[in-house]
What does this fold into?
Amino acid sequence: MSHAPVIARTIPALHRAYNDLKKRNATIALVPTMGALHDGHVSLVRLAQKRAKRVVVSVFVNPEQFAPHEDFASYPRTWKADLAKLRDEGVDLVWNPDVTTMYPDGFATRITPEGPATAGLEDRFRPHFFGGVATVVAKLFTQVRPDYAIFGEKDYQQLKVIARMARDLDLGVKIVGAPVVRERDGLAMSSRNIYLSGDERRAAPVLFRAMKDAAKRIRGGESFDAALHASARSITQAGFNLDYLEARHTETLAPISNLSAGPARMLVAARIGTTRLIDNIKI
It folds into this structure.
């Protein structure tokens, strides 16, 4: 049966709620979000419930991961609908701090990740991004002190950055990746999909189809370069401005040119209209 989650908006309130959740040594899983929740987020919550006895969901639109020209002010905020979803899923605690709680006056400490954060994918186009992500996620980990943290594989480079940070800094949390959740036509679910016009939404599944086609060609023996080039052409012909379509090592995100070099992941980022979409698949 669903129940209303506890909502904490201050650090003292969070600590009181945490102490209640930890009674009888209950394990805790954290699902960090920026709100505007969809079925992909719900899948993360359900995976968290399989991993731990208690589930905490954070809802915080982090200004530190938006560049000045990006959509922080207009990023969708749907608090009432989000809370209804979390209540229906039986979430135990919602951590909903404001900006001044997360970044109080005089805040001066930030994390600058390397390794997967400097792989030349998202960081090439959003150089500010992973520093903002790493800093806020490290804060969430120290605030909530979870045993597990669940992140979607749609933001694949982000997942690898966070996993590396958690290991390197001995943060004591196990990072769990959850499979991409897709619409029926293959488009990866994203809070930013609401920005798409009708025509753009109809074109958007080309990203997934083009990746699947390239992966099939590669598994059939075609070279990485030839397969990626053909799929890149399909993406641009559909009206996208392509930032990248690349094959990388699944764990290190280093460039990879053939399947004998290790497990491979294909990653894409492209803009259509004013909306930037990312996606990835296993090759």
